[in-house]
Design a protein that fits this description.
- The structure is a homodimer.
- Chain A is of the alpha/beta class.
- Chain A contains ten helices and ten strands.
- Chain A has helices spanning about 5-20, 35-45, 65-70, 75-85, 95-100, 115-120, 125-140, 150-165, 195-215, 220-230; strands at about 1-5, 25-30, 50-55, 90, 105-110, 145, 170-175, 235-245, 260-265, 270-279.
- The model of chain A has no long low-confidence stretch (mean pLDDT about 95).
């Protein structure tokens, strides 16, 4: 496994590989790897000759300084996990490598970045688009892999690739869950055992909402039920529960097979998100 | 000379050339070519194995529908000029090839796109950044060439390349002028003979401003003199005359060798721009 921390050497390395007709898969991460990330690595390894995993905690996508400071950092164990998984290349740059100076460039995706996470994390998706553009331009992958847990991020990056005519394919990999149903997330590392148990409430809420919708209950009634369910648990602060069209993320009523339920909220000080495709 | 109108074939063609280690220069144009464009082609041919000229009138960078409709279109003579100049590839796509659907993506460059042209042509530079990103991602040039006449555009594209870590070099080529001093521009084709004579006023104003500044006159006095000079000529409508730092386009007082004078205005219905580096 080759490990790079600078742009020019990884570019030169990958240029050589592309000249040998290697196809390149990219899995962008912020480290603190878990089984969800390893599924992305596995998908990339199956579909490409060479898999690059980037590990970089991008400051411009954090709207909350404390969230940035407390984001888990586990580089040594990340390296071991990636080596064991058979990943070919790690790219783990520093801030000064990724940002020569303070960034003045911002992206606006219209409706796509104004709702859901965009509403509660202003500037988040502009920072995501910026860092992902950088990573795409450094690695120039044939295919890049993102987790379905960050569904809105996947839609925005798909939009970026479509609009800028980037010569690559973007792939979404299903959510990996703990046996409890909790969606795997690097931020779960920050949960106490008690909070980890409480955090399963979000997935339970999604399942309940799905079931209620399938029984024909109106959306507003279902949302009220979820708010009530979360409201009674101490330490849980629901931010949103929404049903949107999977194509354009416009608010949706219940139309089977083309909608997604998304939920976000705090368990103590840790903000978590989850979602469920309705089929 | 190879002529392409679709993205996939030109991509495949250039991929083959890059595999043979050809370096690629890109000259993005909106057609209606003149000697200024041919200097860009010449610069690219000297520095690259293969030169691509794109010809595409990008609707998203026009803030004024009439300006878009009246923009000169001379594709057949453009092809002849490029063939005679020795250009290797023309890429002249249609709107449906460049924009699958209405664009929802907008770029914000902070101060850089709020002033000068950005102030008078809202949305212009977002459209420029969008189409140039598309062209860069289609052609993947080693080097791309832009005219100094569109100085602010050059700065914004340089910023785009720097921020997104695009693996290419951006080059600016000096303004080419008519014997009268008029900066060459595709829009000059729309001028009557009488208006073409009047249009020299902008370059004359730049020269006068430079001279007055070099004699130690304060900037506000110099701007007033230019406004007076333009104000007395019927059919001329000055939009701005500004002195800014060449690095960050911040308003500047007269500091030799690091500033640029920029002017913009209408001659009849035709909007023209010009500039002069102060050394």
């Amino acid at each position: 496994m080759d490990i790079f921390t600078e742009i020019n050497p990884v570019r030169a390395f990958l240029k050589g590989k592309r000249r040998q007709n290697f196809s390149v898969g990219l899995v962008p991460t912020m480290g603190a790897l878990h089984q969800g990330h390893l599924e992305l690595i596995k998908a990339s390894m199956m579909e490409n000759d060479l898999t690059v995993c980037s590990i970089y905690i991008n400051p411009t996508q954090f709207n909350n300084l404390s969230d940035l400071e407390k984001y888990p950092r586990t580089l040594e164990s990340d390296k071991q996990l990636l080596a064991a998984a058979g990943c070919d290349v790690i790219f783990a740059p520093t801030n000064t490598e990724m940002y020569i100076k303070q960034s003045d460039l911002h992206f606006d995706f219209g409706h796509l970045d104004k709702i859901l996470e965009g509403e509660f994390r202003p500037g988040h998706f502009s920072g995501v688009a910026l860092v992902v553009s950088k990573l795409f331009n450094i690695v120039q992958p044939n295919k890049a892999y993102f987790g379905q847990k960050d569904f809105q991020q996947f839609k925005i990056i798909s939009k970026l690739v479509e609009e800028l005519l980037l010569d690559m394919v973007i792939s979404s990999v299903p959510i990996v869950r703990e046996p409890s149903g909790l969606a795997m997330s690097s931020r779960n590392q920050r949960l106490s055992d008690a909070d980890r148990a409480k955090a399963t409430l979000f997935y339970q809420s999604l399942l309940m909402a799905k079931s209620l919708l399938q029984k024909g209950n109106p959306l507003e009634f279902v949302k009220t039920k979820v708010r009530e369910k979360c409201g009674v648990v101490q330490g849980i602060k629901l931010e949103y529960i929404e049903l949107v069209d999977i194509e354009n993320l416009k608010p949706s009523h219940f139309v089977p097979s083309k909608t997604i339920l998304l939920i976000a909220g705090f368990v103590g000080e840790v903000r978590l998100i989850d979602n469920l495709l309705l089929e």
